Amino acid sequence: MTIKMIYRNGKNYLIDFIEISDDEAEQWVTYDFEKRLSEAPDEEKSQICKRTPQEIADEFNRQEERFNKDEMRKRAKTVRTVKDKDGNSINSLDLTPDKDTLSPLEMFLNNEKSKQLQDAKELLYSHLTSTQIRRFEMKLSGMSLREIADAEGVNFKSVNDSIEQVKVKINKIFSKNTPQNHL
C-alpha cells in the first residue's frame, strides 16, 4: 500500500510516497482506532470508526503544518513594523497566520477529502432507493428514527429497516471498494 506523506524541509514541502505492508497498515489502523476510542468522551465513542492509513497520514500532515504555523507565531513575537509596496506600515504579527487560517496544504487536503467524500456519496446513493436516501439524509441531519417515522407518517420498524439496509449496503459497497483492494 502506498501512503502519501508531506514533510517540511526548511521553507519547502516535500511530498513522499512510502510503501507499507498490509500488516503495517492494519497495525496503523488498529492503533489509531484504539487511541482515538480511548481519548473520546463516552457520548462520542459510538461515532468513532476506523480510518484508512492514508487518512491517518493526512492527519499527521495537518499536525505537521499546524506545528509549523505555531513556530512562525513564536518567532514573530517580536513586533516589527514593515512597509508594504505602497509604503504603508504593517505590524509583522498581522502577516503571521493564526491557528484558524488554512495553509495551501490544508486547503488542498480538505479539497481532496471533499472530492473523495462526494465520490463515495455518489457511489452509495447509486445503490439506494429514493426512500433509503431520504431517510438516510434525515438520520445524518441528526433526526432519531422515531422522528423520521413521525415526519413520514410511517411506523418505526419501516424506518429502522431502511436504515439497516443502508448500513448493509455501506458495508458491502465500501468493503469491496477500499483502496487496498485496488492496489
Structural class: alpha+beta
N-to-C CA distance: 7 Å
General form: extended
Number of helices: 7
Strand arrangement within the widest β-sheet reads 1-2
The number of strands is 4
What percent of the residues sit in helical stretches (DSSP H or I)? 55-70%
Uncertain spans: none
How does the major sheet shape up? 2 strands, antiparallel
Spatial extent as radius of gyration:
22 Å
Q: Helix and strand string, N-terminal first? A: EEHHEEHHHHH
Strand content: 5-15%
State mean pLDDT (0 to 100 scale). Answer: 78
Description:
With 183 residues, the protein is an alpha+beta fold. Helix content is 58%, strand content 12%. It has seven helices and four strands. The chain has helices at residues 22-39, 53-75, 104-125, 130-140, 145-152, 156-176, 179-182, and strands spanning 2-9, 12-19, 81-83, 89-91. The strands form two sheets. It has a two-stranded antiparallel ribbon with strand order 1-2. A hairpin with a 2-residue loop joins strand 1 and strand 2. The longest helix has 23 residues, at 53-75. The chain starts with a strand and ends with a helix. The model has no long low-confidence stretch (mean pLDDT 78).
